[in-house]
Amino acid sequence: MAPKIQYGKILKTKGTHDQLGDLKASLGEKAANLKVRIDADEATKDALLKELKAVTGKLEEVDRRLTKLGQARKEYTKTLQETVFALEKIESTANQMQDRFTKMEGVKQAPRVLQGTPEAAHYEKASIWDKKP
């Protein structure tokens, strides 16, 4: 005996089959759209990572340059301080020497003025180098 075909069930099954086909097609489209969006985001991500690497490299270079410039500035500051100190010392020494030369000039002239007097003998024996400043 052949199975009885119920036409209502076949029609209903065919409608469900069509619905499943439509659902499958719709899901396929959505998956394809998501793949396109994911691919676009991956490309954007790759471009941003490349840009980030470039910027990071520049940042490291600038940081190294700043470190070098900071060290150079410290050296210049130290050299400047040493130069100022040396110039102050030279100025101080020059002033001391000028005072000594002034005193020497006074000693050299005194015997001429006092020649033939008892005080002249005192000036001839006295030396400016014997005195402490």
Task: Give a concise summary.
The protein is mainly alpha-helical and 133 residues long.
Secondary structure blueprint with pairings:
Elements: H1 7-113, H2 118-125
What would you say this structure looks like, in words?
This protein is an all-alpha fold and 133 residues long. The protein has one domain. Helices cover 86% and strands 0% of the residues. It is built from 2 helices and no strands. The protein has helices at residues 7-113, 118-125. The model has no long low-confidence stretch (mean pLDDT 82).
Strand content: under 5%
Low-pLDDT segments: none
Number of strands: 0
The sequence of SSEs as H and E is: HH
Instruction: Please state the CA-atom Rg, rounded to the nearest Å.
Output: 52 Å
